């Protein structure tokens, strides 16, 4: 009899814990959605939230997959989808550096071609490609490429210090700037930290 009572009590406790966990998940999810809605209301889609060398970073909302149509320059050059990370990179290179990519299509991670040797031209982008961990130090205005997610991510290096680099980016919510570690090992340079890029592209 006592054993049955203990079993019943344990079942009730487990049921109570399950309900609490479920409610916690619901409250957490609701709070997260509410925060994202707050961010979207605070910063309108397409609103300027940063700039570098006169090229603006636009807010794309709290969902990274948001697409708001295609964006072109006044003379018809295709920047990319509004306001994805690739769009900012192509617009920056075209408007500030006067560089038109021979092939500007593809996801962010497609901008790095693993078949290209260190320091050779990436013909699709018309830029010199360097691998992370090799013998070329990253510079301001380089394009840093990450291939660690489904579509990847792409940013512009805005500052280079002795042991760090700062980048500017689009489509990361309101986080337009980020920093990464820069380490030198002999003649090789390594960029890393909370995320590791595969390499960088440069106009030379």
Automatic annotation (TrEMBL):
SUPFAM superfamilies: Cysteine proteinases. Residues 60-192 form the Peptidase C51 domain. InterPro entries: CHAP_dom, Gsp_Synthetase/Amidase, Papain-like_cys_pep_sf. Keywords: Membrane, Transmembrane, Transmembrane helix. It comes from the Bacteria. The keyword Transmembrane applies. PROSITE patterns: CHAP. Pfam families: CHAP. The chain crosses the membrane at residues 12-32. PANTHER family: BIFUNCTIONAL GLUTATHIONYLSPERMIDINE SYNTHETASE/AMIDASE-RELATED (PTHR30094), BIFUNCTIONAL GLUTATHIONYLSPERMIDINE SYNTHETASE_AMIDASE-RELATED (PTHR30094:SF0). This is Bifunctional glutathionylspermidine amidase/glutathionylspermidine synthetase. It comes from Clostridium paraputrificum.
């Amino acid at each position: 009899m006592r054993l049955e009572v203990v079993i019943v009590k344990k079942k009730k406790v487990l049921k109570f814990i399950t309900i609490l966990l479920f409610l916690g998940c619901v409250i957490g999810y609701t709070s997260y959605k509410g925060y994202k809605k707050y961010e979207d209301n605070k910063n309108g889609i397409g609103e300027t939230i940063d700039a570098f060398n006169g090229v603006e970073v636009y807010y794309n909302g709290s969902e990274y997959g948001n697409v708001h149509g295609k964006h072109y320059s006044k003379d018809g050059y295709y920047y990319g989808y509004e306001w994805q990370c690739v769009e900012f990179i192509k617009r920056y290179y075209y408007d500030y550096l006067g560089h038109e990519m021979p092939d500007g299509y593809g996801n962010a991670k497609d901008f790095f071609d693993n078949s290209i040797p260190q320091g050779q031209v990436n013909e699709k982008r018309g830029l010199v490609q360097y691998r992370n961990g090799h013998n070329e130090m990253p510079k301001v205005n380089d394009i840093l490429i990450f291939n660690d997610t489904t579509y990847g991510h792409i940013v512009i290096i805005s500052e280079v210090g002795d042991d760090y680099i700062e980048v500017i980016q689009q489509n990361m919510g309101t986080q337009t700037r980020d920093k990464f570690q820069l380490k030198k090992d002999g003649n090789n340079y390594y960029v890393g930290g909370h995320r590791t890029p595969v390499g960088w592209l440069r106009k030379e």
